[in-house]
Amino acid sequence: MERCNGILAEIAGSSEVIVGLSRLFDASENREATVPRSVDPSEEGPTPRPLDLTQWVLIYNARMKSKATVFGALGFGLLVGYVIYTSMTLAEVSCEVCLEFRGRRECRSAAASNAVTAQSAATDLACVFLAGGMTDSIACGNTPPASVKCSRR
After folding, report:
1. Tens-place pLDDT, residues 123-138
2. Confidence class for position 79, pLDDT limits 50, 70, 90
3. Strand pairing of 147-152 and 93-101?
4. Closest Cα partner for 93 from 109, 73, 76, 80?
5. Per DSSP, which regions of 12-146 are E strands?
């Protein structure tokens, strides 16, 4: 806050403007709008003083930041919802594949949009637990499954 006041003091060169701007900074943090007032001895009571360009810019920026935050959060929420919705609707077929490789047996299931893709994904998952390197992974992937059970969701 003091840094902003120092910079604005250099620009404006008036302590009265700085007091008004610091009120605007405080108001944007508290969400209460206060208009700086000047006291004219010829009139009764304080009268509102028109805002200068710097004050309008500060008010505009404070309002735009809050709107940008709301729209950003709303957009992010819609994106997450879309990703979850599309990932749930794409899996129409579920397959469970059991593989026997080098004397060990492993069963894994996967879901996809068609049976071929679901069976391939389940085979790859089972091979992760059965194979011990790249050569074994390729050999395991080429091994015909011991059993395959596919069903529509």
Report:
1. 999 999 999 889 999 9
2. very high
3. antiparallel
4. 109
5. 37-38, 47-48, 93-101, 104-112
| Tokens at 10, concatenated | 């250099």
Interatomic CA distance for residues 68 and 112, integer angstroms: 38
Report whether 149 contacts 94 (CB < 8 A). Answer: no
Given a cut of 70, whether residue 69 has pLDDT beyond it is yes
Helix (H) or strand (E) holding 123: helix 115-130
Question: Long-range contacts made by residues 142-147, C-beta under 8 angstroms, separation at least 24?
Answer: 143/99, 143/100, 143/101, 145/97, 145/98, 145/99, 145/119, 146/98, 146/99, 146/100, 146/105, 147/96, 147/97, 147/98, 147/107
CA 2 to chain centre: 32
In angstroms, rounded to a whole number, what is the distance separating the alpha carbons of residues 72 and 31? 20
Distance CA(140)–CA(126), nearest Å, equals 9
